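Milestone M4 deliverable, item 7.
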Amino acid sequence: DSSTISISQIGNLTPVVFNDTTICESITSITLNGITPNTLAVPTETGIWSQVSGTSTFTQNGNNANVTDLSIGTHVFQYAISNGVCNPPSSDQITISVIANPIISLTFIT
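Output delivered:
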């Protein structure tokens, strides 16, 4: 199973993430979608994902990141937009918490 988490642009190219997310362990991969840098206004502007913590496999793919092998625990990712001139880059983090699949127990009373 997989899931997609999007990042939205509000205002001055500041990446703003949706709320941190909790998923069940049956979802083993996600795609993190970053906003598209405004290269028309600033040709040197780039967006970069990084993995801050967690034990997943992480691959940058343009403005997006593919994350696989998610294990139970907390995984933190950061998206930053930089134009090579202004420091520090504009960035934000998202936390993905992976929890164990719920166990459903049925009791029959006869």
